[in-house]
Each structure stands twice: as C-alpha cells, then as structure tokens.
Amino acid sequence: MPLGSTRTALVTGANRGIGLGIATALSQAGLRVLLAARDRERGEAAAAALRAAGGDVRVIALDVANTASIDACCDALAAEGVQSSHVDVLVNNAAIMEAQGGCALAEDLGLLRRTLETNTIGAVHLMQRLAPPMRERGYGRIVNVSSDMGSLEHMLAGDLSYRVSKAALNAATRVFADELRGTGVLVNCLNPGWVRTRMGGAGATRSLAEGADTAVWLAMLPDGDTTTGGFFQSRKPLAW
Ligand SMILES: NC(=O)c1ccc[n+]([C@@H]2O[C@H](COP(=O)([O-])OP(=O)(O)OC[C@H]3O[C@@H](n4cnc5c(N)ncnc54)[C@H](OP(=O)(O)O)[C@@H]3O)[C@@H](O)[C@H]2O)c1
User: Fold this and answer.
1) Is the CB of 126 under 6 A from ligand 1?
2) Mean per-residue pLDDT for 81-103?
3) Residue to mutate, 197, 207, 213, ligand 1, most ligand atoms under 8 Å from C-beta
4) Is a pLDDT exceeding 90 seen at residue 79?
5) What pLDDT sits at residue 165?
C-alpha cells in the first residue's frame, strides 16, 4: 500500500455490541471506518464517540436482511465517491439470535428463514459485491463473525436456526477463501467468545474489546500474509 494511504473497513451491525467494539478498535488503529447500521440514528449515536476520539468514521444505512438495502448501500458508496472498490476490509458482524434455547423439533421455520437471511445470506451477498473489487486491487480482508455454536464438532441440541446459520457462514467462508486464494484477499471466520452484549447477556465473560480482538487481528493481517479459510478463537484455530 502506498505510504500515507488509509485502509477502509466496512463493519456491519456496528452501532452496538461486538460490531461497535470492532469499529472502535479499527478506528483507533487508524483505519477509515464505514459504520454500518440498519438504523442511521443509532449508527450516528455510536459514531459520535469514535469521531470525538479523532476517528474517521462514516455512518451508512445497511439492513443485511434486505437484498435491496445491500445493493442500495453498495451503489450509494460508489455514487458518493467512496467506491466499493475502496472497501479494503469487510467485517460481517451483524446477526440475530432469537428465541434462545428453543428446541429443534418445534423450531419456527420462519425464524430459520429470518436467521439465515440475516446471519448468512446477507454476509454472502456483501462478499459477492465487495470481494471482486478487492481481488482486482490485490488486497482485501474479509472477516465473518461466527460462533462456536456453528462448529459441527461442538454441535449440540437447541438453537437450530442460529447454529445452522453460523455453520453455513463457516462453509461460505471456506468456499470464498478457496476461490480467492492467491489474490491477496483473505477470508476468515471467528468465534468472539462469550461477550457482554445484548445477545451475550450481562453475565458473559468477555468485554467488547476482548470480543473484538480476533476479528481486528484478522481484519489487519499484514501484506503478504496467507492466512485464509480459517476459523479462529482468541487468535488460535478452532475446530470446524
Ligand atoms: N455476544 C456473544 O457472546 C457472541 C458469541 C458468539 C458469537 N457472537 C456473534 O458476534 C456478532 C455480534 O454479536 P453481539 O453479541 O454484538 O450481538 P448484539 O448485541 O445482538 O448486536 C447485534 C448487532 O447486529 C445488528 N443487526 C441485527 N440484525 C441486523 C440487520 N438485519 N441488519 C443490520 N444490522 C443488524 C444489530 O443492530 P440493531 O441495534 O439495529 O438491532 C446490532 O448492531 C454476531 O455475529 C454474533 O452471532 C456473539
């Protein structure tokens, strides 16, 4: 990368929780951050603190469960001069986990569809839009925030929709990584651990910064690094 140029990172679901933790750390590390939130006002509120700390942060409206919203977001970035080709880092963080603890035998299929739309298809769609220009430029970092609940090795009863959505996200990570191997675009996924967010609950063991750490590490893998197609926790490989 030429001296003085700044990498740009787009983080989904960045208005709160781990996504905000990731956006904060990337901003502090000097990246330009596109803070994506489905509610612009919530995004602006989150961005204010990062800007006050000197961050170059821009809020973009993005509902990852909505195909038209993803296309509109990518089109708007291009129209406003922030070419989608200038998104160097994509962090697919936004996710839902509704009806925690539900039994697979009684799972609402509507919940399964909603969860796949948000947690898996939205991430795949964004990779489809943003990875080709990364490949053209020979640099990209795609980070998919997954979960150990998506690990087939550790698959247990309950939470079918969430587990299936994250296992599918892990599979997508490997497919995209293999298709992009050798192009400078690295695609990895991670489990952030049990983090104190609305999803993780107040009793979780990790802070936002701790939950963000592995994602930030993957987002900032240095030039020439070949780490791709991996599943990590605390910067170490995790069983698929
Ligand atoms: N917390 C944990 O212990 C834990 C453990 C393992 C994995 N994870 C993973 O870590 C990631 C972040 O989780 P979290 O704990 O920070 O969750 P969270 O506190 O529930 O925050 C979720 C974020 O995603 C956004 N979001 C949800 N649906 C969206 C949509 N359709 N379009 C755009 N944004 C949407 C939310 O926006 P709104 O504010 O608009 O709702 C919010 O910003 C998720 O991928 C999750 O699966 C978390």
Assistant:
1) no
2) 84
3) 197
4) no
5) 98
In a domain, 191, yes or no: yes
Does any domain span residue 3? no
42 within ligand 1 shell (Cβ under 6 A): yes
Give the residue from 117, 133, 143, 141 showing the smallest Cα distance to 63: 117
Residue 207 counted as domain residue: yes
The mean predicted confidence, pLDDT, of the chain is 94
The CATH number of residue 33's host domain is: 3.40.50.720
Cβ atoms of 142 and 87 within 8 Å: the answer is: no
Strand partners, 187: 142
139 labelled catalytic? no
Q: Whose CA is nearest to atom 1 of ligand 1?
A: 200
- pLDDT grade, residue 100 (50/70/90)? confident
Rounded to whole angstroms, the Cα distance separating 69 from 129 reads 12
| Contact 82 CB / ligand 1 (< 6 Å) | no
132 in a domain, yes or no? yes
Work out how many domains the chain is built from and give that number.
1
Helix (H) or strand (E) holding 70: helix 67-79
Strands (DSSP E) found in the chain: 8-11, 32-37, 57-61, 89-92, 140-145, 185-190, 231-233, 236-237
In terms of pLDDT, which residue wins out, 6 or 39? 39
Tokens of 26: 């990337």
Residue 209 Cα to ligand 1 midpoint, Å, equals 15
| Domain carrying residue 20 | 8-237
64 CA closest ligand 1 atom index? 32
